[in-house]
Each structure stands twice: as C-alpha cells, then as structure tokens.
TrEMBL record:
Residues 206-221 have a biased composition (Basic residues). This is Methyltransferase like 25. Residues 142-379 form the Methyltransferase domain. It comes from Poecilia formosa. CDD domains: AdoMet_MTases (cd02440).
Length: 568
C-alpha cells in the first residue's frame, strides 16, 4: 500500500494556518456563556449588530462580489477583526476564513471509499467481505451508521495486515465489537473501564449469537426446501424439529450449545430468509439493552487490573480495565497476537492514549480511532496549571500530542474545546442550540453577582432548566441547588432581571452561532495534531484523516488511521 500523500511538511503548513486563524478568533470560543452578561462579552468582542451576525450565518459565507468599501476595509482587519480594537467588524470575512480553515476547506481528509480502495488494491481483493447482518436490526440509526461504516474499514485493515484480532478500546456496550465478530469473523477484545458496560456488552453479544444461529438455521432450512422443490428427482424428507425448537431460538431461549455456536456462516446465510416477525422478536429481545442508560465511568483506583466476564471464550471477549498508553496489553490479553486497535468515539484523553499505544506496542499493526468529548482532554501547557477536567489522573496529556505543537507549547482552553464539540452541520439545518437554557443561566449569574457574594462558587447548578416551569422557578431551584437563601428575593425581583435582559437575548444567540462557526477549526487543530503525531513516527508508513461518517448523523465523523511499516 502506498504511503499517505500528505507529507509532514504539508501538515505543518496546515497546522500553522489554523493556528494563525485561531490566534485571532479563539477568544470568542473561550468566552464562557455563563459570564456573557456579567462580563459584557458582546461589547468586548463584537462591533456589529446581532442581526448582522445571524443574517450572515443563516445565509452562508459564500458571499460573492462584496462591496468595494468592504474590500478596502480588509487591509485594516485580520479575519474580520479590527487590528486596532480586536473586535469583529466584518462577519463575512470571518465566515469565509472559518470555512477555509476547517478540515474540508484545507482538503486534508481522504474519503472512506478512497481509503477502502487503497487498502483493497482492487475491488475484487476484499470481495469476500460481504454483508450478513444489518446493524439497524439492533441499533438506532446513528449507531447503525457508525458501526456499519467503521466495521468495514476495520475489517479491510485487518485483512490488509493479515491479522485476525481486533482490540476495541472504550468498547462501551459492545456494538462495534459484536458486529465485527459476528459479521467478519474477527476475534475482538473489547476493553472498557465500566464493569456495567462490560456486562451489558457480554449479554448483548450472547443474544446476538443466538439470533445469528437462528438466522443460519432458517436460511439453511429455506435453501434445503428450495433445492428440494427445484429438483424433482430428489426425495423429499419431512423435517420434524423438536417441539418449539425454532420458535424458542428466535425468542431468545435456546440452549447453551446454540449460544456458543460458530458464527462463521457463508454470506448467503442472512436474515433475509426470516420473516418480519423474526425481526420484531430480534428487536424485542434487545430493547432492554438499547434503552439502558449510560453507566458512570469507574476511576482506575476502583478497578482490578483485569476483570473478565463469563463466556469470554467466544469471538468477542469483553474485558473490564482502565487503560492508558502505558498499559501492557499482553497482561490483559494473554492470547494476544498481532492486532488492529480501534476506538469508536473514545472519550477525551483515551483517543490520544490509543494512538500512543499503537506507536509503542509492536503487536499492533494498525489503528483506526474516532475521538469525541474534546472538552475532557487534558492540556499539557494550561497556563492556569490545571490538567484534565475528568476525574482520572492522566499519565500523559491528551493535547498536544505531536512534538511539533509541543515545541510551541500549544494551548486551546476548555471552553474552546467545548465549542469544538458543537455540530455545525446540524445547527445549519435548524437543529439549533437550546438558547433559553443558556439565557436563563447567564441571567442567573447576574443575580448571583448582585445579591450573593458566592457567585463564583465551585458548586454547579446542574440540569435545573429541564425541571423548571418558568424563569422564577428556575432561579429558585438553582439557588436551592447552590444552597443559597432565596427568601431575600421576591418573584417580581427575579422576573425583573429576565425582562431587563430579554431584549439582549439575540446577542447571546448570535455569539453562540459564532462559536458554532469556529467549532470545525478547533476540532481540525486537535485532529491535525494527532495526524502529525503519527507522521512523526518512523515505523508508521501510512497515516491519514478519514471522514468515516455523515456529519449530520454523527458529528464526530473523522477517524485517525495508521499502519505500521511491516503492515504495508
């Protein structure tokens, strides 16, 4: 396989371009919405009206043929910000620059199809990887899209490297792991720090195995019947299964022998031979798992070095462990051979740890990781001296990862990383931000400043908005949560704050739309840093940023893919 066409020099140039843009604009992303009115954020950063911002954002940034006086003003602005006041004076210039400094604008990424073509070499090489199960039978549409797209890439990586094992880091409920094992016959080790997730993944995989077995039996019976009908010379033998045998298998009450049965069935043995009733039973059997709420993450101090679920002798083995870049994988997985390491929406520092493990462990031939939760990344060069916002003590910070940005002491800031989690594509289609809750919180901060000396308390208001019936109710619930006396304020006093700031709600709306506009650029810097890190490694022969998912379905849609030299 040929090495990536993106050279380290090109990546450095792209990083420099994005950094220069963010050096001017990052202050907007780092402004805290809670302090929007107490710090008069709009006046500090913006010199145009909220209506101008909202109109420009809604109409798009491709404004052709700007007025001549606007073009002349560009000499006094940088990315739309006045070089003297450092305030935004040209929204169109900012929007054009933001689009140009995003990953699509830079032209950094390769498509999923391009990656698959490179891995395959020819269309026929991977032809044996065919669809057997439809993931939307047991997942919601978003997860189905993610698992289907990523699993094909992972399977092709494994085939390209000649390996049969996959390590799924941060495997959660085991959707990707189960699908890889059942669909492609790979031996998958799913590692998650939550024992609840591990148990749930194990139980889900057990049910999937039963239904995979049921699919095979029904497909085989259907083919046998079809062959008998098409061949008049063949003697028809009536099949007499045991009482309720097939029905019980579909309903999820098969024997232990069915549970452990092989799933390496021919591609022709699909669920197409089953009727709609079987599909409904499939969903019914898994519905309890699908609606299970996410479990809290377990700190490493409360985890054993290894906690393995029962029935781990199958092709999918869920493991409970907290992993970092220093984790010895062979201590967790004694039967480990060469493997592909994957992570679907690995949270915070785990995405960076996955890449560090790939580089450090000779048994890892390839990596494919999609990160998320950028606000939980720890930063090495935080000027406030604070690291990760998670509860875990990290041994290596998640940003920056590359030596190139570490040499520059690059720093983003938590609020900017929080902004990077915003979904521009969804907001652009009207799936906007819940502005009222943000407005309530910002006005509450004004009340805390005016009437309570502890308004800078470390205590959190939490999700009070969803339970509040009005602004007055919201404030009273918030004061109780903060353990403050709300009797000093009557309802009319509280409502007067709402009425006073309501006219300025457009300012907050417009400001948050600017944050959304900057989100792809901040995410781009984080991902370019990860790509740069792989490019810096001598034994990594191929590395790329790949758009795996439709951003409307899955906003965190970019994967970092790498291959070791001996794998190409």
């Amino acid at each position: 396989m040929k090495s990536s066409c993106r050279s380290l020099t090109e990546i450095h140039r792209w990083i420099d371009e994005v950094k220069r843009f963010l050096s001017v604009t990052l202050a907007i992303a780092n402004a805290h919405t809670v302090e929007f009115y107490t710090h008069d954020v709009w006046k500090r950063f913006i010199a145009v009206t909220p209506q101008e911002v909202l109109a420009a954002v809604s109409s798009g940034s491709e404004q052709e043929g700007e007025p001549e006086h606007k073009q002349k003003e560009h000499s006094r602005t940088t990315f739309g910000f006045c070089i003297h006041s450092n305030r935004l004076v040209d929204i169109h210039e900012l929007l054009v620059a933001a689009k140009a400094q995003s990953l699509p604008g830079l032209g950094v990424c390769v498509s999923r199809d391009e990656l698959l073509q490179s891995l395959r070499g020819s269309e026929s090489e991977c032809a044996e990887i065919a669809d057997k199960l439809e993931p939307d039978e047991f997942m919601n549409s978003k997860k189905s899209h993610e698992v289907q797209c990523m699993s094909k890439v992972v399977a092709c990586l494994a085939q390209h490297c000649g390996v049969k094992q996959v390590i799924d880091v941060g495997s959660g409920k085991g959707y990707l792991s189960s699908f890889l094992s059942l669909q492609y016959g790979l031996q998958v080790f799913g590692i998650d720090s939550s024992s609840i997730n591990t148990h749930g993944a194990q139980e889900r995989n057990r049910k999937l195995k039963k239904f995979s077995r049921a699919y095979q039996k029904h497909s085989k019976a259907a083919r046998t019947q079809a062959e008998a009908q098409s061949s008049p010379q063949t003697e028809t033998v009536e099949r007499k299964p045991g009482p309720n045998r097939d029905r019980d298998a579909l309903a999820g009450s098969g024997s232990q022998q069915d549970v452990g049965a092989s799933v390496d069935a021919p591609a022709a043995e699909t669920q197409s031979a089953l009727g709609p009733e079987a599909g409904e039973l499939f969903l019914s059997a898994l519905s309890a798992d699908v609606i299970q709420p996410p479990s809290p993450r377990v700190p490493p101090s409360q985890l054993s070095a290894r906690s393995r679920g029962e029935g781990a002798d199958g092709v999918f083995s869920p493991l409970t462990s907290y992993v970092t870049s220093e984790t010895e994988l062979r201590d967790l997985i004694t039967e480990l051979e060469e493997a592909v390491m994957v992570g679907l929406h690995t949270c915070g520092d785990l995405a960076a740890s996955t890449l560090r493990m790939f580089v450090a462990k000779p048994e890892l031939s390839a990596v494919c990781g999609v990160g998320c939760c950028y606000h939980l990344l720890s930063e090495e060069f935080n000027p406030n001296g604070q690291g990760s916002t998670s509860d875990y003590v990290c041994t290596a910070c998640g940003f920056p990862l590359s030596q190139y940005l570490r040499d520059q002491s690059c720093f983003c800031g938590r609020n900017a990383r929080m902004s990077a989690c915003l979904a521009l594509e969804r907001v652009s289609l009207g799936q906007g931000i819940q502005m009222e809750s943000l407005f309530y919180r910002a006005v509450l901060h004004v009340i805390l400043r005016d009437h309570y000396s502890s308004y800078k308390s470390e205590k959190r208001v939490g999700n009070v908005y969803s339970k509040a019936k009005s602004f007055v109710d919201y404030v009273r619930r918030a004061l109780h949560r903060l353990e403050l006396d709300d009797s000093k304020l009557c309802d009319s006093d509280i409502q007067s704050y709402h009425d006073a700031y309501e006219a300025r709600m457009d300012e907050m709306h417009a400001f948050n739309m600017l944050k959304v506009t900057l989100a792809p650029c901040i995410e781009g810097l984080i991902l370019l840093d990860r790509l740069c890190y792989l490019k810096e490694q001598e034994d990594v022969s191929f590395s790329a940023l790949v758009q795996l998912f439709d951003p409307l379905l899955s906003p965190r849609c970019y994967a970092v893919v790498g291959l070791k030299s001996h794998s190409t």
